[in-house]
Specification:
heterodimer; A: about 325 residues; mainly alpha; globular; B: about 290 residues; Rossmann fold; four-stranded antiparallel β-sheet; 11 helices; about 25% strand
């Protein structure tokens, strides 16, 4: 039953789009197996890739969220809250602006540097205040605001060179290209290796630094590696599709709640699957809204759903229910 | 079993010397107690033995430098203190026990052995009913039992417990005392505590610290003979009194100190004459006090 639903969804997402191919036309031509070459090419090279990217990006961002939450022992963070998203987007804008012809390779590298720098800034500020979970959130919001503001300023210039730049502010898959596959796969590979290497260590680290140390887990090193894996992989996704906030925050919580455990070996795969599915559905919705409004950024929709979830977590945290 | 040579610990950030030239030899398969007031270095000493902080000097376990057998120690030595980290990620009691098998668990996923050992220890410590509860939902006393269980799941040969009796009610303290004495036939237990009564009921060997220095090491009997050591360290007079067939340590209100303490000390000496302690460091303090 479930798999048949998924098949329907996949087919649906291949057919539906805001502008290019009317639903009826696509449906009939596909069914009659009399598909014109151009249409088939469009469906395969664009919509199939696009669907694939939503699944892979959802997987990466959810996994990065799991790693960041476990390594910082903080339920209120993801790559967006910690400033990685806006930091890498700002770096991407700079690269687009300064470089005449910038390859995706360069963009990914620059985004990674930007994302990791923003993360380092957030951690530095949070640790200098108190190092508490809320300090991380506040410091992250500050850093995010800084880079978001700068990005918006740059946007007016960047958008002249790259039309989709404005949509990347909230994350979009509208400009999906086959070339994105290499970089997205790289991010996926990174989080999968991170999952295998770090999950057991992160479990132990959740119990405290001293506790981890006496069990033979180096707390500082584990936290650094987890932050790097999460930071680099999330930055690569941002460099391809823009900032998709709150997905990495929400999905680990859904997984922990469903499984009734904090075990990262189990939580991370379920969070990955949830992230993939959520982003996939969101992307389908974002390009099939009625009323001829065209396409809205998928990331905006995710934020609209994820931000209230974040606020619920925050209020529960202060009321002590999360303890 | 465990010995230290010129063990000195300096905290880098504050520059505070938490331990200075500590030379002790803790016997194997006994319950050893580290006594001392707040900030005397008890936790630091346990952490240094557990190899989770930097120190100068040497810690030897079974005659070998602990640093050289660190991998083996991670499997055979457990250090346990109340979990200070506020858990916000929904860690359950079962999770804590399972994660604590990290050094001995094989493979990526949880093995049958991991699960069975975890349940076995939970039953042994009477916390099987708590396994699905989140850490954040536990009372301090329940958490204390969970922490002890977590220290035992990898079946260590050395158990270092930082204030295992704090937050426990009277019944639980008596149970813990009996439990630790029972397991000490196969496990070397070193604990720190603020409760002299619990210490004297439970422990065979004592190390008394004051401001990072060792002021006494010796057996329970030797300490009972020298309660003045504790009196000077804590600033409160101590006495030993007979409880059943066991002498225990009790702090006195200064008002009753002068008369009662001498009486009690004399009584102990009369009943059980012992060899006077040979620890030179304690001699001066004893003389000063009396």
């Amino acid at each position: 039953m479930k798999s048949s639903r998924r098949v329907v969804l996949v087919v649906f997402s291949l057919l539906v789009a805001s502008t290019t191919l009317p639903l009826i036309y696509t449906y009939t031509t596909t069914l009659l197996e009399n598909v014109p070459g151009v249409v088939l090419e469009r469906i395969l090279t664009y919509r199939l890739y696009r669907s694939l990217y939503t699944v892979l990006a959802g997987l990466v961002l959810a996994s990065a969220g799991c790693m960041l939450q476990a390594s910082l022992r903080n339920p209120l963070v993801d790559h967006y809250i910690l400033g990685i998203g806006s930091g890498s987007l700002f770096a991407v804008y700079i690269a687009l602006l300064l470089l005449e012809r910038s390859s995706l390779w360069v963009i990914s590298l620059v985004a990674t540097i930007g994302g990791l720098s923003a993360l380092a800034l957030t951690v530095l500020i949070a640790e200098s205040v108190s190092g508490s979970d809320v300090a991380y959130v506040l410091s992250g919001i500050g850093v995010t605001s800084l880079f978001s503001g700068l990005s918006v300023l740059l946007l007016h210039y960047v958008v002249r060179k790259y039309a989709y730049a404005s949509l990347m502010l909230t994350g979009t898959f509208v400009h999906a290209r086959p070339e994105n596959l290499v970089y997205t796969s790289l991010a996926v590979a990174l989080v999968l290796v991170g999952y295998v290497v770090l999950s057991k260590r992160l479990n132990v680290l959740m119990l405290g630094d001293d506790y981890a140390a006496q069990l033979g887990v180096n707390p500082g090193l584990t936290r650094l590696v987890a932050s790097l894996v999460a930071g680099i992989s999330a930055s690569i996704i941002v460099s391809q599709f823009g900032v998709i906030g709150f997905l990495g925050l929400v999905t680990p919580h859904i997984a922990r709640f469903t499984l009734k455990t904090s075990d990262n070996r189990l939580v991370t795969p379920l969070a990955m699957a949830t992230g993939s599915l959520l982003l996939y559905i969101t992307d389908v919705i974002s390009r099939s809204l009625p009323g001829g409004v065209g396409e809205i950024p998928a990331g905006a929709l995710i934020s609209a759903l994820g931000a209230p979830f974040f606020l619920i977590l925050l209020t529960r945290r202060f009321r002590g229910a999360l303890r | 079993m465990i010995s230290t040579k010129n063990l000195t610990v300096t905290y880098k950030r504050s520059g505070v010397v938490a331990l200075r030239d500590v030379n002790i030899a803790i016997p194997g398969n006994t319950v050893t107690c580290i006594l001392g007031p707040n900030a005397s270095g008890k936790t630091t000493l346990l952490k240094a033995i557990a190899q989770i902080l930097d120190y100068n000097g040497v810690v030897e376990v079974t005659g070998k430098d602990a640093k050289s057998i660190i991998k083996e120690l991670r499997r055979t030595l457990s250090y346990s203190s109340i979990l200070e980290e506020r858990d916000l990620l929904g860690v359950t009691v079962f999770d804590v026990l399972l994660y604590s098998r990290y050094p001995v668990s094989r493979g990526f996923f949880t093995s049958e052995e991991d699960t069975s050992k975890t349940r076995e220890v939970a039953v042994k410590l009477g916390i099987e009913g708590l396994l699905s509860r989140k850490l954040s939902e536990l009372s301090a006393g329940e958490l204390q039992r969970v922490v002890l269980a977590a220290a035992l799941v990898k079946e260590p040969r050395i158990l270092l417990l930082d204030e295992p009796d704090s937050h426990l009610d009277v019944y639980s303290k008596i149970w813990l005392s009996g439990f630790l004495r029972e397991i000490s036939s196969s496990v070397t237990v070193v604990l720190s505590t603020h409760d002299p009564l619990f210490a004297s009921l439970t422990c065979e060997y004592f190390v008394v610290l004051s401001r990072g220095r060792v002021v006494f090491t010796g057996s329970r009997r030797e300490l009972l003979e020298n309660t003045c050591v504790l009196g000077e360290v804590y600033g409160v007079p101590f006495t030993s009194t007979l409880l059943g067939d066991l002498h225990v340590l009790i702090p006195l209100h200064p008002r009753f100190a002068k008369t009662t303490q001498r009486e009690e000390e004399n009584r102990v000496v009369e009943k059980s004459p012992v060899i006077p302690p040979t620890h030179e460091k304690t001699t001066s303090s004893r003389e000063d006090f009396t």
